[in-house]
Design a protein that fits this description.
single chain; 9 helices; 301 residues; alpha/beta; globular; 8-stranded mixed β-sheet; 4-stranded mixed β-sheet
C-alpha cells in the first residue's frame, strides 16, 4: 500500500499546565504544585504523532507572534510547517489542570486558530489531490468549508469531531472517509451509548465511511468495510492522559497508510497511547515509532 501525502489543517496551541491534587470544583480555590508551558492543540498533536509514527505529513494552520515554540517542535518532529501562517494576536492556548491520578480538565481559547479564511484554505490545499489525506479536528473555524474543499480535490477526509459542538452539524459528514471518535463523541453524533450501536448508526448514516471508536479502559474498536476489529488497552501507570487520543489517531493513521492492516494499526496505536499516558504533557509525551516497535517486540517475547 503506497503511503499518501498527509496534511493536517488544525490547531496549534500553547498549553499552560497546572498540577493540582484534584480538579477544581465550582466556587473552589486551590493551589497548584507546579505550572509548565508546553506545546499542544489537537491539530499539532496529531501532526506530531503522524510524523513520529512514520508518515509524510505537513501542517497548515495559523499562529500568533508567540508561536515560535509551536513551529520548532513540529520541525524537530519532522512535520513540514511551510504552510503555517504567522498572524498578529495570540496563538490558541489551553489552561489544563492535571490531578494526582493523571486525569485532566481543559479550558480552550481559540486565538489565531479561529482566523482561517477561504483564501487560506485554498492556499493550504495547493498541491494536494486525489488519494492524499487531510486530517481535521474541530478547533479551527471554517471546518465545513475545509471538508468541502478537500473532498472536491479527491482527498480522503479524516475527521476527529472534537471538541463536539453545533458547528459539526454544519459539516457534510457524508464526505468523511474516516472518523476518529471517543465514546462521548460517538454518542453525540449518533444518540447511542453502546459501542455496537454507535457503529451500527455510523454504518447506516455514512455507509462510505470508516470509524475508529476509542473506549478508554475498554480499548478501541474499528469498523472498516463492514468488518469490525477490537483491541484491548495495554495497561500502564497513567501520569497524564492529555494527548493520548491524538497519539492514538496519529499512530493508527500512519500505520494504516503504510500497510493497510487495520488490526496492526490498532495495536500500534494502543501501544503508542500507552507510552504517551505514562509521560507528562501532550506533544512532548508522544513516542517515536522506534519506541513503539521496541515495546511491541518486548511484549511479544
Amino acid at each position: 500500500m503506497t503511503t499518501a501525502k498527509v496534511l493536517t489543517l488544525g490547531s496549534l496551541n500553547l498549553d499552560f499546565i497546572y498540577r493540582v491534587d484534584h480538579i477544581v470544583a465550582s466556587g473552589e480555590t486551590i493551589g497548584a504544585g507546579d505550572v509548565q508551558t508546553r506545546c499542544g492543540g489537537k491539530g499539532l498533536n496529531q501532526s506530531i504523532a503522524l510524523a513520529r509514527g512514520g508518515a509524510d505529513v505537513a501542517h497548515a494552520g495559523i499562529v500568533g507572534a508567540d508561536g515560535d515554540m509551536l513551529l520548532d517542535i513540529c520541525r524537530e518532529s519532522g512535520v513540514d510547517v511551510s504552510r503555517v501562517r504567522v498572524d498578529e494576536g495570540r496563538s490558541g492556548h489551553a489552561i489544563i489542570q492535571v490531578d494526582s491520578r493523571g486525569q485532566n480538565s481543559i479550558i480552550l481559547f481559540g486565538g489565531t486558530n479561529r482566523a482561517v479564511t477561504q483564501d487560506y484554505i485554498d492556499r493550504a490545499l495547493d498541491g494536494y489531490g486525489a488519494g492524499d489525506v487531510i486530517v481535521l479536528q474541530n478547533e479551527i473555524n471554517m471546518l465545513p468549508q475545509v471538508i468541502a474543499a478537500a473532498a472536491a480535490r479527491g482527498m480522503r477526509v479524516v475527521l476527529n469531531p472534537s471538541p463536539y459542538d453545533d458547528r459539526i452539524d454544519e459539516c457534510d459528514l457524508g464526505l468523511v472517509w474516516l472518523f476518529f471518535v471517543n465514546e462521548i463523541e460517538g454518542e453525540q453524533l449518533t444518540g447511542e451509548s453502546e459501542p455496537a450501536r454507535i457503529l451500527d448508526v455510523f454504518a447506516e448514516r455514512y455507509p462510505k465511511a470508516n470509524v475508529v471508536l476509542t473506549l478508554g479502559s475498554e480499548g478501541a474498536v474499528a469498523q472498516f468495510g463492514g468488518e469490525r476489529f477490537e483491541q484491548p488497552i495495554i495497561p500502564t501507570t497513567a501520569v497524564d492522559t492529555t494527548g493520548a487520543g491524538d497519539t492514538f489517531t496519529g499512530f493508527f493513521l500512519a500505520e494504516y497508510l503504510r500497510g493497510g492492516d487495520v488490526a496492526r494499526a490498532m495495536l500500534t496505536a494502543v501501544q503508542a497511547s500507552s507510552i504517551a499516558v505514562s509521560r507528562a504533557g501532550a506533544a512532548p509525551s508522544i513516542p517515536t515509532l522506534a519506541e513503539v516497535r521496541a515495546a511491541l517486540e518486548a511484549r511479544a517475547e
